[in-house]
Design goal:
The structure holds two protein chains of two kinds.
Chain A (H helix, E strand, L loop, with lengths): L21 E7 L5 E7 L8 E3 L1 H4 L4 E2 L6 E2 L4 E2 L5 E7 L2 H10 L1 E6 L41 E8 L27 E9 L11 E7 L2 E6 L4 H12 L6 E4 L16 H11 L3 E4 L2 H4 L4 E2 L1 E10 L5 E13 L5 H11 L8 E10 L5 E2 L6 H19 L3 H8 L18 H11 L11 E9 L4 E9 L5 E5 L8 H13 L6 E2 L19 H19 L3 E8 L2 E2 L6 E2 L4 E12 L6 E13 L4 H20 L5 E2 L2 E2 L18 E7 L16 H10 L12 H6 L6
Parallel strand pairs in A: 1-14, 12-13, 15-19, 17-18, 22-23, 28-31
Antiparallel strand pairs in A: 1-7, 2-6, 2-8, 3-7, 4-5, 9-18, 10-16, 11-12, 11-14, 16-17, 20-27, 21-22, 21-24, 25-26, 27-28, 29-30
Helix pairs in contact in A: 6-7, 7-13, 10-11, 12-13
Chain B lengths: L1 E3 L4 H10 L4 E3 L5 H6 L7 E4 L9 E2 L4 E4 L4 H6 L1 H6 L1 H7 L5 H4 L4 H7 L6 H7 L3 E6 L2 E6 H4 E3 L2 E2 L6 E7 L5 E7 L10 E8 L2 E7 L6 E2 L1 H4 L7 H14 L10 H18 L2 H4 L7
Parallel strand pairs in B: 1-3, 2-3
Antiparallel strand pairs in B: 4-5, 5-10, 6-7, 6-10, 8-9, 11-12, 12-13, 13-14
Helix pairs in contact in B: 11-12
Classes of the chains: A alpha+beta, B alpha+beta.
Chain lengths: ~700, ~280
């Protein structure tokens, strides 16, 4: 059977139409911070619906972790914030109407840099921080009143002072407890900029109302969170909102939580007819980005290379709305510790509002930013103590039975094998000349706690239908679920159908994120098939729940019910005169447990590495007074086929082991592997991407 | 909106005379992007896709390329590779095969986009265009065609019908410094051609139009590293580069000095031996 993607037979959200639907367009703020004073619609034709902030204000605010966003912004908090929505019978009329609307603004002070936003005199992006009652606010939210901090996360291992007051001021927060036994200390600050997901398909949805019930067809990784958040906004019971998720043309985290759906739903409600809202490419750049972050790490070790203590500060730029930034800040905090043993760990991670476009989920979720910093610091330590970087890591890596900084005991860990495999791929010479080569190793958590349910129905023709909330965004989840179900049922995979999620038909699932779905759905399917066999009916129901979670004030608890484990190695050359960095080899090694579909697993690995190459070498959103410079795919480059020739990967599989997700594992270790390789050639990279200009700027000069 | 699709050159120039504000569409890789982004809106369009004559390609004397010859054809034509290696080398490194299959030589010159590869090389090779209107035919050196950002010396009723490149330019080099993706446009481009005892060094993608300084070029001593270095420094001093996503002005100034020197060093005496004298 030919892949339906190749036959062009998939209907993506952006392809869909329904009879009688109208088309929406948005008027967006040209200012980073401004109050809407008046809206002149006198040139707009009569047959166009115009919604203004005051029309939607009664709906109140929404937000998956902090309720900080109105459906349309009466106070615009970033360039591109939607302030007016229009709908018309055809798209051209809607576009023209949007252009004819004159909005006047009172400009307000704006702030862009995450550390500037912590200063006492910084303008506040939001006056108050209301914690969301959504299921997505699944851990203790700790906004700091009267600051731009919407959440802070802290780790303190048991013997460190606990409960000291919070200071969001980076300069005064410098305590060094736990470093007494450290004979060598390295301390460096790193930065990773915002980038765009650049899914091939932009956001697109169709909203309609039927007898007071809301139906939204949209590309989303979070159908049940979407249902709950829209139900909250429109004052409906969850069951009066139906979310249908056709396969997406890519997402990478961009299609999570409520994006444009609330606006489409409000327009459809006013019109009492279906409304389609599909974004243009330039609008994608102001819809969601990856968190820019500054990460400072202090690492202490004994002279012989035993890690003693680690202190981490993360300043996470979540832009104008929190979205899931608090969760990102938490994961950034513990991923920066890395898969190592320490006597003491202290982490402070701050999720900070600025007047930039909102940042949210992005493949590598928080880990990418802090692993860049922490694995560069590991190499700085290796140079300082004069120990081979692979050997230094090997001496300190967590093994089964070790305790992570969160207090949880590690099991099924394979960091050493992964590191050695990656090093071998670049012909690493233990203790020898490894100029131009670098390695990195990392851990990344899975969504914890989380739950998954799945239904399985025997059809009349002997086929089976799996009812699952796992969404398809190109990662091949439907195929993997069909395969898992077929194996459990003892039938061929083509006898199993996996229709796209529809919240009216499929049972609850937390969401399709954090590389959790193959693992969680696989386990839920086991119980569903068991139930089918035992129930004697045509339907079996499976349910699985992972408990856990971290105390956000101490960082103690269960960070992840299992760990995504990965290593990478790189070999590079640099043109000293131009600063152009050439990748000779980039290799990622990831732990998969049991592999369900090898081809799909390898594609996930390669896809992660390709995104990592963009992040490492040239992807960066630049802003001018908060406005994205060049929001198009000519000015903003992503990797092309020619940029990926050096990529290779291995998947560590253990027969009979648990299934581990692979959607992101190969992304976070790649930037530091390349950065570490560059550092061996006389450079000290701290900031990504490593453009030629930045490479020349970090040259250490002749020593 | 009207979409006009003439079948002959005569018809095309007549339409352009009648509709001087009409936007010409060749391969569509440039106007397509601008239109999608809302940066270009036009009531009238003249597509040259159906004008067969504009696809003619001749290598029998000077290289004559119809305006609608695609980058990809130039890249793959064995006679162009043998007789005009500079032309081949520059068209082969534009963007990706997908773009090269659509983009045309007339289009890339008519756009006058500072970041395109071909203009610098075509200036270095003393190429010229034929511009046709109902009033007649003009020959315009490429060096005089591009005036600034998206500005050409074409009259509003004229269209580029052919691009001509003289024979015998074997000693050429094209250096494309990319700072981001391998499919990106150049941050700094240097085309150098040595012919008849004279070198022409043209720097592209750094300013509003290709940059060439004949007085500096005239000082070149082939094979002399110091001479190359001096010319390179001179180019870096005289050019006021722009800043964009592909590099700051400061970086570009530094790179002009590096890349001009490297281009001249590539044209070493061994390479400068005429092909006929090679064994």
């Amino acid at each position: 059977m030919t892949d339906p993607r190749i036959r062009a037979s998939i209907r993506y959200p952006n392809d869909l139409t329904v009879p009688g639907m109208w088309h929406a367009r948005l008027v967006r703020s040209p200012h980073a911070s401004a109050r809407v004073i008046s809206i002149d619609t006198s040139f707009v034709p009569e047959a166009v619906l115009v919604l203004t902030p005051s029309d939607v204000e009664p709906l109140g605010r929404y937000g998956c972790q902090i309720s900080d966003q109105y459906v349309l912004a009466g106070v615009a908090r970033h360039v591109g914030d939607p302030v007016v929505a229009v709908a018309a019978a055809d798209e051209a009329t809607a576009r023209e109407a949007a252009n004819l609307i004159e909005v006047s603004y009172e400009k307000l002070p704006a702030i862009f840099d995450e550390r500037d936003a912590l200063r006492a005199d910084a303008p506040l992006v939001h006056d108050s921080h209301a914690v969301s009652d959504s299921d997505s606010a699944y851990f203790g939210l700790r906004p700091l009143a009267d600051t731009n901090v919407c959440h802070r996360f802290r780790i303190r291992t048991a013997d460190l002072p606990q409960g000291e007051p919070y200071t969001a001021d980076p300069e005064s927060d410098d305590h060094a407890e736990g470093f007494d036994a450290a004979q060598v200390i390295v301390d460096e600050t790193f930065r990773m900029p915002a980038v765009q997901h650049v899914a091939m398909e932009p956001h697109a949805c169709i909203a309609s109302w039927h007898d007071g019930k809301l139906e939204v067809t949209t590309g989303t990784q979070t159908p049940f969170n979407m249902r709950q958040d829209l139900a909250g906004l429109f004052g409906l019971p969850d069951t009066d909102v139906r979310i249908i998720c056709p396969p997406m043309g890519g997402s990478f985290g961009a299609k999570t939580f409520v994006r444009t759906e609330a606006i489409a739903a409000a327009l459809a409600q006013h019109l009492d007819r279906p409304v389609r809202l599909a974004l243009d490419r330039d609008e994608e750049f102001v819809t969601l980005t990856r968190h820019a972050a500054t990460v400072r790490i202090r690492l202490g070790a004994t002279r012989d290379g035993r890690f003693v203590a680690k202190r981490i500060w993360c300043w996470v730029n979540t832009g104008a709305y929190a979205d899931c930034g608090p969760g990102v800040a938490m994961k950034m905090g513990y991923a920066g510790v890395g898969p190592y043993r320490f006597d003491h760990v202290a982490v402070d991670s701050y999720c900070i509002y600025t007047n930039l476009p909102p940042a949210g989920a992005f493949r590598g979720y928080g880990a990418a930013q802090s692993v860049w910093a922490s694995e560069r610091v590991t190499d700085l330590m290796a140079a300082e103590v004069g120990i081979d970087p692979v050997e230094l890591r090997r001496q300190n890596l967590l093994v089964d039975g070790d305790v992570f900084c969160t207090g949880e005991t590690m099991h099924d860990v394979h960091f050493e094998e992964l590191l050695e495999d990656a090093a071998r791929a670049v012909d690493w010479q233990p203790g020898g000349d490894n100029r131009g080569k670098g390695v990195a190793v990392m851990l990344k958590g899975m969504q914890t706690p989380s739950k998954a349910e799945v239904g399985i129905r025997r059809l009349d023709d002997g086929h089976y239908e799996v009812l699952s909330g796992t969404t398809e965004m190109g990662q091949g989840s439907a195929k993997a679920i069909a395969q898992l179900a077929a194996d459990l049922l003892g039938v061929d995979a083509d006898q199993v159908e996996v229709p796209p999620p529809d919240t009216d038909r499929v049972p609850y699932d937390t969401r399709t994120t954090s590389s959790r779905s193959t693992h969680m759905m696989g386990r839920a399917l086991e119980t569903a098939v068991e139930d089918l066999k035992n129930s004697g009916s045509d339907y079996g129901h499976g349910r699985i729940a992972n408990d856990g979670g971290l105390d956000v004030d101490t960082g103690q608890g269960i960070a992840s019910s299992h760990w995504h484990q990965g290593a990478a190695a790189a070999a590079v050359e640099v043109d000293d005169e131009t600063g152009v960095l050439t990748l000779r080899s980039v290799h990622a090694s990831s732990y998969a447990g049991r592999v369900v579909n090898r081809a799909a697993a390898e594609l996930q690995q390669e896809g992660s590495m390709i995104m990592a190459i963009g992040t490492t070498l040239f992807e960066e959103l630049t802003f001018d007074q908060g406005q994205v410079v060049g929001p198009n795919l000519s000015d903003y480059n992503i990797p092309s086929a020619l940029d990926c020739a050096a990529v290779s990967q291995t998947i560590l599989e253990i027969e009979g082991a648990e299934v581990h997700g692979l959607g992101e594992t190969a992304l976070p270790p790649v930037p530091p592997a390349i950065g570490n390789a560059l550092a061996t050639l006389g450079f000290r990279p701290t900031e990504l991407p490593l453009t030629p200009e930045r490479v020349l700027g970090c040259a250490e000069g002749p020593s | 909106m009207t979409w006009m699709a003439p079948r002959t050159v005569t018809e095309a120039v007549e339409l352009k005379a009648e509709h001087p504000d009409a936007t010409l569409v060749a391969g569509g890789t440039f106007v397509g992007i601008l239109t999608r982004q809302g940066l270009l809106a036009s009531d009238d369009w003249i597509s040259l896709q159906n004008v067969r004559e504009l696809r003619e390609l001749s290598t029998s004397s000077d290289l004559a390329l119809g305006a609608m010859v695609t980058h990809r054809r130039i890249e793959l034509d064995p006679d162009i590779a043998a007789g005009w290696p500079g032309v081949r080398s520059v068209f082969a490194v534009v963007a990706s095969p997908r773009v090269r299959n659509a983009a045309t030589i007339g289009g890339v010159l008519g756009d006058a986009d500072y970041a395109s590869d071909p203009p610098a090389m075509l200036v270095a090779l003393d190429a010229w265009v034929e511009a046709l209107s109902v009033r007649g035919l003009r020959r315009i050196p490429v060096a005089d065609l591009i005036l600034g950002h998206y500005q050409t010396s074409l009259e509003e009723d004229e269209l580029i019908t052919r691009v001509l490149v003289p024979r015998g330019r074997y000693h050429v080099t094209y250096r494309k410094l990319r700072t981001r993706s391998r499919e990106d446009r150049p941050s700094v481009a240097v085309a150098a051609s040595f012919h008849d005892g004279r070198v022409s060094v043209v720097v592209g993608a750094v300013a509003d139009r290709p940059q060439v300084f004949p007085d500096l070029c005239a000082t070149w001593v082939p094979g002399d590293g110091a001479s190359a270095r001096e010319i390179a420094t001179g180019y870096a001093d005289r050019i006021q580069p722009i800043s964009d996503n592909r590099g700051s002005a400061t970086y570009r100034t530094r790179m002009i000095a590096v890349e001009v020197r490297r281009a001249l060093d590539t044209l070493t005496p061994a390479v400068l031996t005429p092909p006929a004298a090679r064994t």
